[in-house]
Structures are given as C-alpha cells and as structure tokens.
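Progress note, sequence design subtask.
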C-alpha cells in the first residue's frame, strides 16, 4: 500500500504544478481581455478553456483519492457534486478532509461552469458570468494548492509509516 500512497503523493504534486500553469494562462488571457477588448472572443475562449481544464484537473485528483484511498467513488446523476463534498469531509481512520468545506461552493461553481462550457457554443459565453470565476481563481488556487500539498505530505508520511512497519 505504501507504493500507492507514494505514487498518489507524487501525482498530486505533479498535477499541482500543471494546475499552477493553467491558472497563470487563464489569468493572462483575462488580463489581455481587459487591455484589448477587441480580442474578446479569443481571450474569453482561452479563459473558459483554462477554467475548464483547471476544474477537470482538480476533479481527476479527487477521483483518484476517492477510488484509491476512500475506496468509494460517488455515482448517480450528481456524482460530480458529491465528489466535491466527499473531499471536504474527513474519513475517520483513513484520511483528513482534503479541502476546506469553505471551498465547496467555489469548486461547485467551477464544476457548473465546466458543464456549461461543454454544452454551449463558445460564442455564447458571457464575460460578466466568467468574471467572478476568474477573479476568485487566484485566492481559490492559493488555498487549494496548500491543501493539496498538505494532503500529498500526509500520503508521503503514510508511505513511510507503512514501509517501516
């Protein structure tokens, strides 16, 4: 099992690095949109794509934890939302909460936005609806990054403990 903990810890750290790049790309496109409104379509498309990628990356990590650590991935029509809630809960004797419950609402907003991006034409994106998501992204990512790294540290410690047992 320690190999699983170690692999998952490494995966979280690697994904965190990739997510950091995604956040920077989204913010850069948003700043460009503010400076060059004539580039609205291309910039808004870039912001939307990167917000989509950001949430998808977070969800991939959550799915790995649910499958490999919790041994329980939500199912049903609302499984994506339920997965966020699961990651905000401690599982006694298994793992701490991965994200603070205060982040559930922000993550759920990104989840809903990802669904929207997947199901509409990009020319229907409304900048005023994207703005709160992109403006909240730096703070959300700052907290999530710390929480994910702390969880990776937890897994690393478990790997050491199970290896020495």
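Output:
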């Amino acid at each position: 099992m320690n190999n699983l903990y170690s692999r998952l810890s490494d995966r979280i750290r690697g994904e965190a690095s990739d997510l950091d790049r995604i956040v920077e790309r989204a913010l850069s496109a948003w700043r460009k949109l503010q400076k060059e409104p004539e580039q609205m379509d291309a910039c808004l498309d870039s912001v939307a794509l990167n917000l989509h990628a950001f949430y998808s990356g977070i969800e991939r990590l959550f799915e790995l934890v649910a499958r490999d650590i919790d041994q329980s991935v939500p199912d049903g029509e609302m499984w994506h939302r339920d997965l966020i809630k699961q990651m905000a809960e401690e599982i006694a004797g298994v793992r701490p909460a991965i994200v603070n419950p205060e982040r559930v609402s922000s993550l759920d907003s990104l989840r809903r936005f990802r669904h929207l991006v997947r199901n509409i034409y990009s020319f229907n994106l409304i900048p005023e609806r994207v703005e709160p998501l992109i403006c909240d992204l730096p703070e959300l990512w700052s907290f999530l990054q710390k929480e994910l790294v702390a969880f990776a540290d937890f897994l690393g410690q478990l790997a050491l403990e199970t290896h020495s047992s």
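The first helix runs from residue 2 to 35. Work on this subtask will continue into the next period as scheduled.
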